[in-house]
Predict the structure.
Amino acid sequence: MEKTKTMEHQDGTFESHLTEMKGTDTQESVNSSAVARFKSIKRARRPLSAQEYIDGICRGDMSILSQAITLVESNLPEHKQMAQDIIQGCLPYSGNSIRIGITGVPGVGKSTFIESFGVIVTAAGHKLAVLAIDPSSERTQGSILGDKTRMEQLSIDPNAYIRPSPSAGSLGGVARKTRETIILCEAAGFDVIFIETVGVGQSETAVHSMVDFFLLLMLAGAGDQLQGIKRGIMEMADSIAITKADGANEYKASIARAEYSSALQLFPKHPSGINPEVFVCSSIENKGLEVIFESIKNYIATCKSSGYYDEKRKEQASYWLYETIQEQLQYDFFNNQAVAQSLKQFENDVVNGKMTSFSAAFALLDLYKGNRS
Ligand SMILES: Nc1nc2c(ncn2[C@@H]2O[C@H](COP(=O)(O)OP(=O)(O)OP(=O)(O)O)[C@@H](O)[C@H]2O)c(=O)[nH]1
Ligand SMILES: [Mg+2]
């Protein structure tokens, strides 16, 4: 464009090509027209109504879904009601997904597994949402956040949605928010949902109570104790997958598979009536992953026909009723002004032997009951 302007002078002569380049202008690092456009959009944006959120989610609008999840994660009282209205509106469109919990100690290969396994799931025509419950997220701002950039294929897959875990709050609170997020994702059309958690013993119960299938990832040859996996977590598992079964590790993985298979036989019978399987897989070499997905789908189909699937989802719904009551009561109690003002003093009295823990607890509870706002 610039070229034609400078080439022809007004008197009709042409400027030499050699003098054409007068040096380029320094490019602005910010595209100012784009900034102006975004600003105008921002100004134009009015808060959506609950119904607009619900409609947006149900037509699969990812931006509206993300905004609604942010409301679910918010602790602001004005967001809470809105979030509940949206969840309630989405509830009739939810429930139709395979919810898979994925757990394992740090370094077992969860993120790499989710990336490779996720690609298989979307290639099979599913829409996949990846959520996380991460008790360490207050420190790390949600490990999945960093992972999202590492999940190279999945993060650009139009059929996958990766949501970083909420970064603050009690485990109970974070878990409840994740459970509510599942409902929104299902209403948005996601039919497979992964919920990742670090298997260090706190969050597994919460994840187990919101999934249809609980997959425990294990390392070969590291020993149960080294892996910090408690027996209780193994009992919760619907299947175990030994990760990193490639190269020199392949043989060790097959030994571990045999060991875990026989260890599982000593466990109480699985409530579904289906014996947990032990798989070996390599996320890096993409080996053994399809068979895990097939097995999960078979498990779900069998549980649906036996009635166990519905029974478990009902149990989970009532579990979350009680969990939410407990979490909310605790939140109210500790955020009660009278309690907050006196708690430290009572604690000092308790640790200095001036009061028993019980009488201090009851005194604080009385304070709370008398000062409920
Ligand atoms: N050889 C091999 N290495 C793997 C495989 N999967 C993961 N790894 C490696 O194991 C290390 C840990 O993998 P991650 O996927 O980050 O493990 P993680 O469980 O998500 O770890 P945290 O996020 O810290 O809990 C990385 O260096 C991976 O490259 C595999 O299938 N084979
Ligand atoms: Mg990870």
Remarks:
- The first helix runs from residue 2 to 7.
